[in-house]
Write a structure and sequence with these properties.
There is one protein chain. This protein has one domain (2-164): Gcn5-related N-acetyltransferase (GNAT) (Aminopeptidase, 3-Layer(aba) Sandwich). The chain contains five helices and seven strands; from the N terminus they run βαααβββαβαββ. The protein has helices at residues 8-15, 19-25, 37-52, 103-117, 133-141; strands at 2-4, 62-66, 71-78, 87-94, 123-128, 145-152, 156-164. Strands 1-2-3-4-5-7-6 form a seven-stranded mixed sheet, with helices on one face. A hairpin with a 3-residue loop joins strand 6 and strand 7. Residues 9-166 form the N-acetyltransferase domain. Keywords: Transferase. GO terms for molecular function: acyltransferase activity, transferring groups other than amino-acyl groups. Pfam families: Acetyltransf_3 (PF13302).
């Protein structure tokens, strides 16, 4: 499993739901899921983000790519570079057709490894809806602990989990 970086033009095309244009500029073949309704809002946020903060492109959402199957199976990445306190927040979503195959765990572990390798990162955060038991169990299994809750304007109530960067034993 690899996390494949996309450029600003591909992010914009995905945000617009334009799979053909996105695929023309992407380094790997994409899937209809990535240009679909469930993913478009994330691409829209990230496309706007890199206009304001071009270096954030190195941190944000990428394609979860299975090189053995030559298949894009989802998206995963950080919400942005580390903040002033050294916190990065992870986000991930796997195409329903490819869930329960270890891709989310592999993507999360890749993000944890990236965070551990970056001196500016102290903490990795995941914010998860209370009814998303699968994601909750995933982060708990990777060493995250519940630290509180927040209300996200898009997603509503979320439980906040954190782990210190570099402490993941995987």
């Amino acid at each position: 499993m690899e996390l494949v970086r996309l450029d600003r033009a591909v992010l914009r095309a995905l945000a617009d739901g334009d799979l053909a244009t996105a695929e023309a500029g992407a380094p790997v073949p994409l899937s209809p899921y990535l240009a679909g309704e469930e993913c478009r809002w994330v691409w829209s946020i990230r496309a706007a983000q890199v206009l304001v903060d071009p270096p954030s492109l190195d941190w944000i959402t990428r394609v979860v790519w299975d090189p053995a199957r030559r298949l894009a199976v989802g998206k995963a990445g950080f919400h942005g570079p580390p903040d002033a306190a050294g916190m990065v927040e992870v986000g991930y979503s796997i195409d329903p057709a490819h869930r329960r195959q270890g891709y989310a765990r592999a993507a999360l572990r890749a993000m944890l490894a990236r965070a551990a390798a970056e001196p500016a990162v102290a903490t990795v955060r995941a914010s998860i809806a209370p009814d998303n038991v699968v994601s909750r169990d995933l982060v708990l299994g990777e060493g995250f602990v519940e630290v509180g809750e927040q209300v996200d304007e898009e997603d509503g109530l979320e439980i906040v989990y954190e782990v210190a960067a570099g402490t993941h034993l995987g």
